[in-house]
Amino acid sequence: MIAEVIVDVSAYPIDRPFDYAVPAHLETVIERGSRVKVPFGPRKVIGYVTGLKSESEIEEHKLKKIDELIDLDPVLSPELMDLAKKMARETLSYEIDALQVMLPAAMRAKYEKFISVEKLEEIDDARVLAALNGRTRIPLKQITDPDVLKLIKDYSERGIVSVDTAISQQTKVKKVRTVHIGNSDTLAELLLTVHPNAKKQAELIRWMLDHAGETIEAAKLLNESGIQNPVLKAVIEKGGATEAYVETYREPDAPKLLDTPIPIRLTEEQQTALDKVKVAADSGKAETFLLHGITGSGKTEVYLQAIKHVLDKGKEAIVLVPEISLTPQMTARFQERFGGLVAVMHSGLSAGEKYDEWRKIHRREVRVVVGARSAIFAPFENVGIIILDEEHESTYKQEDTPRYHARDVAIWRSEHYGCPVILGSATPSLESYARASKGVYTLLELSKRAKNQPLPSVTVVDMRDELKEGNRSMFSVQLAEAIRLRLEKKEQTVLFLNKRGFSSFVLCRDCGTVVQCPNCDISLTYHRSNESLKCHYCGHEEPVPLVCPECESEHIRFFGTGTQKAEEEISKLFPEARVLRMDVDTTRQKGAHERILRQFSEGKADILLGTQMIAKGLDFPNITLVGVLAADTTLHLADFRAAEKTFQLMTQVSGRAGRHDLAGEVFIQTYSPEHYAIELAKTQHYQTFYNLEMAARKQYGYPPFYFITLVQFSHEDLLKVADFAEKGTRYLKNSLSPETVIIGPAAAAISRVNNRYRYQCLIKYKKEPKLIETLQQLIRMYRTNWMKDGLLMAVDMDPTSIF
Ligand code: ADP
Ligand code: ZN
Ligand code: ZN
């Protein structure tokens, strides 16, 4: 028997299966999707069996043998194996990367280099002997002295020592030590034989007599009996008890409560939506629904009942939510309904906890998974429904290879299982809504709030007027007044200051003008180094104007504000207010995010000030005011999706206020009050926004009218990166169809990261049959020739942002 194996080496040209002989004793157990340990060159590596066959083109005596089968059960089903292949192709990544991304990180192998001494007698250097310290095999990383390393290298060349790589699995199955206490006869007999000085042993045996025949966790036994472990060991040795190690799960959450949910009567709109999903679920055909429902319209209730329907038919459900809204509040709703059938996967879990949740799914101990992006690969084999809540969120796209979008993966998997996908959002992505309008997806609408609460009242504040009135603070008079009122009434305020991405722009404080690229309808990016404005789509460059091109005001300058500065201003304006700040700086520690939210929900602060982190998931009854300090930071992102992102964000932020009994009020401060994304956020008219934005996208040729692919280059040397970018772009221009538009190369908006200069080029196309093939060839050129020169190149088939 021959196995085809994809090995754990992400390098060209290894991205293909290699043949290995299967040892006779493994023939009956090895399967497609099994992990194996195989020799690869001088090393041992982990690999995935992608196929089994009886013949190989390689001569038998040259065929290497599989060393070891790692798992008795294959870790990946045939469906996921096929999916990996497809994903690798569609995202232009290595198949090994596609396979690994489907498994919890804890299952990825760790490779460690070891030095083995072959001929100890020939080692003559005292420093090397000291480093070995009597051992004949040590991890290479223990040697830090460069001189000693050099000597080791010499020895290795002379065959005195050898260096090899060993594989270690990062996380193991957690086991708990349990003690089974003997029967009372045995114990009574034992008590008579213990030495009179062994008082503690006698004490333990007496304690055990009261628990004869029981099985108890060792830690608990020691704790309750007040005895030390060596004493327990002695008693076990004498036959008073036996011990065992039992497999267990790390429990990340509090015990799950299973209470009978109060049956909710669905609204008419909810019922219509649910019925359509049920019909699809029963039909056995894949169908994608776009559930467009305003905030609070009861989308989650529709998900819950649809899941119930498929569970009753013996199937499984995958629910994706954006990482940041994967709050305890959210997961509790699923656990209340489905109890212990739910596994939760989010980045707050340790590697071991994630591994345990994965094992519960793999063993079918749960039937629903609620998780962030990577939960889309849940190893279920009878999927009945897949749900993506807040489907417009960019976190569903992985920014590293494999650059997959969870929405695409969801649809691929649904086609395999013939099951429905629900994409839910109050502000769907333009792509999804366009597909729904064309009938590719089935549109389901929830236009009213489930509990009939009114939407909060939204006021747009023109910051240009504030400046004219002489107010130079970050707070308009109106917003400051509203905050003061909340402080008096002991109600809570959320202040939102978006600092998304890194792009910065130049804005006229008198008229709100932001200088745009004449070719691309994109804000120009400010470059401090030479006081210039650049378009990183097409490369257009111009000097920073001294006066506003529209109104000739001199108040035109770099725009940027941070949360720290805002916090200082708040404490000046409202010295009595208790403020919590939530941004990347204050949430670096594990659990900090939850802690801040808990403090706020417990009323320990009056004001929560934060970045986009606070836009979602906040659902506290006492929040009655939401302030957006500067809507302009998103509106003028150097990104063709700037307006869409602004509209989504404003809608979401507004949804934080007045979700319960107290009415909510929202203030949006901006220098561009007349922009349609701001204007329409006031009324939350998605349809109108969609129409206007689609017209703009059509005019400038952006998605969803065109597809785009981004190719990024980076190098430590500015001249080199420019040269490679030029070469790459030229190759694309020569190979692709004339209708395809290739923009650039141009410096990226963030032109330098980690001392590497960044360039990029953008491919826009409607139909480009040669695209994948051409990009594969470009990647081949990069991997075989350019990489050696220190170039890094990345291809993103459907970028979410273009920084
Ligand atoms: P969304 O997910 O669309 O923001 P939710 O599902 O969170 O909305 O619903 C908002 C609130 O309305 C929740 O408190 C939910 O329990 C409640 N709710 C949902 N559907 C109904 C219904 N049919 N009748 C009464 N309350 C409902
Ligand atoms: Zn101006
Ligand atoms: Zn441009």
Automatic annotation (TrEMBL):
Keywords: ATP-binding, DNA replication, DNA-binding, Helicase, Hydrolase, Isomerase, Metal-binding, Nucleotide-binding, Primosome, Zinc. Its EC number is 5.6.2.4. It comes from the Bacteria. Component of the replication restart primosome. The keyword Transport does not apply. GO terms for molecular function: hydrolase activity. Binds 2 zinc ions per subunit. NCBIfam families: priA (TIGR00595), PRK05580.1-3 (NF004066). SUPFAM superfamilies: P-loop containing nucleoside triphosphate hydrolases (SSF52540). Pfam families: DEAD (PF00270), Helicase_C (PF00271), PriA_3primeBD (PF17764), PriA_C (PF18074), Zn_ribbon_PriA (PF18319). CDD domains: DEXHc_priA, SF2_C_priA. Belongs to the helicase family. PriA subfamily. Residues 280-446 form the Helicase ATP-binding domain. Initiates the restart of stalled replication forks, which reloads the replicative helicase on sites other than the origin of replication. Recognizes and binds to abandoned replication forks and remodels them to uncover a helicase loading site. Promotes assembly of the primosome at these replication forks. Zn(2+) 2 binds at residues 517, 520, 535, 538. The keyword Hydrolase applies. Residues 543-696 form the Helicase C-terminal domain. Transmembrane segments: none annotated. Its cofactor is Zn(2+). This is Replication restart protein PriA. Zn(2+) 1 binds at residues 508, 511, 548, 551. It comes from Sporosarcina koreensis. It catalyses: ATP + H2O = ADP + phosphate + H(+); Couples ATP hydrolysis with the unwinding of duplex DNA by translocating in the 3'-5' direction.
